[in-house]
Design brief:
Rossmann fold; Helicase, Ruva Protein, domain 3; 2 domains; two-stranded antiparallel sheet; 14 helices; about 15% strand
């Protein structure tokens, strides 16, 4: 191993300890949900936006708020409602009569961690106000462009139960989220622990263990982790199988209307690198890819109505793809 590789590995092992410390701090507040916590951190390390889907009361908002507290980052929560306007998110210009000039009033989008709560409750015009911010890390207010502070991440939640008064996210927007995580109900044992934590005066809190500057450094470090050509081929083949299932003899392919976009390849690669960093490794293996593949593909594979009739889900499709695509 070269001196340069030894230095990189040493830095990765050092930083993985910091990241695991962050994970432990989140665990002090959030009961259970270990997979969701880990994937949220992976999303942050990959500089990717996150969509959390789950029933009300499953600590989705608390998770993002706790992450911001443990990261010493500015946190902003936007409650999406049907009457919310784009200017309520990004801001607007207000006329100052005293000096006859326009002043810029910045909206809640100007924060490090932005929680878009119940994003599917706002109309499409307001939802689209997030697009430029998520993709370009900037917003435009009445023709003037403003850069957002780094790190900048959008964490959106949506409630799958209610349909009335909601506006489903269009494919173009949902594709901009790196992960779509499904937040499940806690177990009976975890629920008892929730009662112990949340019904006394000793409400748990997370200590700040990392800074915004360190998060930016970690995001850069993740990109230095090595990915072998065989693993790259594996990643590209998985995504290609969602578009050309017949080439891989995927029987459930007949239910696929649209396969995953090129973003799936990018996020699978960067996310796998973040998984390697969490384990203190300077290289990616196939297990890293398998760890996040469902969360990256579940909202990028669009199935036909026949799939509903046959009770076939995207999870079933991904299962078969992983069986048919050769693993290095």
């Amino acid at each position: 191993m070269s001196k340069l590789n030894k230095e990189l590995l040493g830095k990765i092992k050092e930083k993985s300890e910091v990241v695991n410390l962050l994970k432990n701090e989140l665990g002090k507040v959030i009961v259970g949900q270990k997979d969701v916590i880990e994937k949220t951190i992976i999303s942050m390390l990959s500089n990717g936006n996150l969509l959390l889907e789950g029933a009300p009361g499953l600590a989705k908002t608390l998770l993002v708020n706790t992450l911001a507290n443990a990261s010493s980052c500015d946190f902003s929560r936007i409650q999406f409602t049907p009457d919310l306007l784009p200017s309520d998110i990004i801001g607007t210009k207000i006329f100052n009569q005293k000096d006859s000039s326009f002043e810029t009033k910045f909206g809640p989008i100007f924060a490090n961690f932005v929680l878009a709560d119940e994003i599917n409750r706002a109309p499409p015009k307001t939802q689209s106000a997030l697009l430029e911010a998520m993709a370009e890390k900037q917003v435009t207010i009445l023709g003037e462009t403003f850069s957002l502070d780094k790190p900048f991440l959008v964490f959106a939640t949506q409630n799958p139960i209610e349909q009335e008064g909601t506006y489903p996210l269009p494919e173009a927007q949902i594709d901009r989220f790196m992960f779509k995580l499904l937040v499940e109900y806690p177990s009976k044992e975890e629920e008892l622990e929730i009662l112990d934590r949340m019904t006394t005066n000793n409400f748990p809190s997370a200590s700040s263990v990392i800074s915004g500057e360190e998060i930016i450094d970690l995001q850069k470090l993740v990109r230095e982790i090595y990915v072998d050509d065989l693993v790259k081929e594996y990643i590209v083949s998985i995504v290609d199988a969602t578009r050309n299932p017949d080439s891989y003899e995927v029987e459930f392919g007949k239910f696929i209307e649209w396969g995953a976009s090129p973003r799936a390849n990018i996020f699978l690669t960067i996310g796998s690198k973040a998984c390697a960093l969490l384990d203190g490794r300077d290289y990616v293996n196939s297990d890293d890819v398998k760890k996040i593949v469902y969360d990256i593909l579940r909202h990028r594979i669009i199935l036909s109505y026949e799939a509903d009739i046959e009770n076939v889900s995207t999870h079933d499709v991904i299962d078969e793809i992983l069986e048919k695509v050769k693993c290095p």
